[in-house]
Write a structure and sequence with these properties.
Layout (H helix, E strand, L loop, with lengths): L7 E2 L7 E2 L1 E5 L5 H10 L3 E5 L2 H5 L3 E4 L4 H10 L3 H9 L4 E4 L1 H6 L2 E3 L25 E4 L9 E6 L9 E6 L3 E5 L4 E5 L32 E6 L2 E4 L11 H12 L1
Parallel strand pairs: 3-4, 3-5, 5-6, 6-14, 7-8
Antiparallel strand pairs: 1-2, 8-11, 9-10, 12-13, 13-14
Bound molecules: glutamine.
């Protein structure tokens, strides 16, 4: 299989191979993902040019700002090459802004035009449509712009994952092929904080008929994994990256 060509052999090629996994290195938390991938069993490579993309077996899209990353993907002439590799089945993992970019439809935060329940498409974000999900950017209210939580993530053994959320998105709607791996407690159930904004509520426009709507923070569809949180910021726990490395190996 041509995909396996170039895998780096650990020692003598007897036991393990380490897939080459790229990190989209235009903006955001690149170094942290490179380090977590290395610890998680991959050979990490920053990707800034189409030629670099051609040499990787999988790609991580880091956190940052999805509007800025959209512009840079265009500017570095990477949008189409990345979109094509994804459409051809390249494994990918997106965290936070990376999750936003991997979605099929992206809604603006609740402060955007239209109010809390708005289905306004996010201005300036062009999603890569590798995941059949609707994602809302900046979905948590000001009282919870950034927070941390211990989450059970399906497929990750060894106890909850410590999840760091920074102006994080939420998945509001999933297609039938999408597996929900983790949810958080619904936000906005209590009264709004004094002076705070209206809390987020799920998209009323065709939301899925499951109780977890508005709470989904990790999903997988085939070779594509996405988390609203940043496991790369938690030193000493590479389980999510290790899981992605396994997904790349399995392809
Ligand atoms: N930590 C992050 O990646 C933040 C994501 C950012 N709010 C966005 O929409 O793109």
């Amino acid at each position: 299989m041509h995909r396996r060509v170039g895998w780096i052999r650990d020692n003598g090629g007897v036991t393990t191979t380490r897939p080459v996994i790229g990190v989209l290195a235009l903006q955001g938390g690149v170094a942290e993902h490179l380090a977590a991938l290395e610890r998680g069993g991959a050979v990490p490579r920053p990707v800034r040019r189409p030629e670099e993309l051609a040499g990787v077996h999988g790609l991580v899209l880091p956190g940052g700002e999805s509007t800025t990353m959209t512009r840079l993907l265009d500017g570095f002439e990477l949008f189409e090459p990345v979109r094509r590799r994804l459409a051809a089945g390249m494994p990918a993992y997106g965290s936070c802004a990376g999750m936003v970019l991997l979605g099929s439809r992206v809604l603006d935060d609740h402060r955007g035009r239209g109010g809390a329940d708005s289905a306004t498409p996010a201005v300036g974000v062009r999603p890569l449509a590798a995941l059949d999900v609707v994602v809302r950017r900046n979905a948590f209210g000001r009282q919870a712009d950034s927070f941390e939580a211990d989450l059970d993530v399906e497929g990750i053994d060894g106890g909850p994952v410590h999840a760091v959320f920074i102006r994080a998105p939420l998945v509001e709607k999933v297609g039938s092929d999408v597996q929900v791996l983790a949810t958080v407690e619904p936000v906005g159930q209590g009264p709004a904080e004094p002076g705070g904004r209206e809390p987020h509520r799920p998209d009323p426009d065709g939301a899925p008929a499951e109780a977890s709507v508005g709470t989904i923070v990790a999903v997988r569809q085939g070779p594509v994994l996405a988390t609203a949180f940043h496991p790369e910021l938690v030193g000493g726990d590479e389980r999510v990256h290790r899981q992605f490395v396994q997904m790349v190996r399995a392809c």
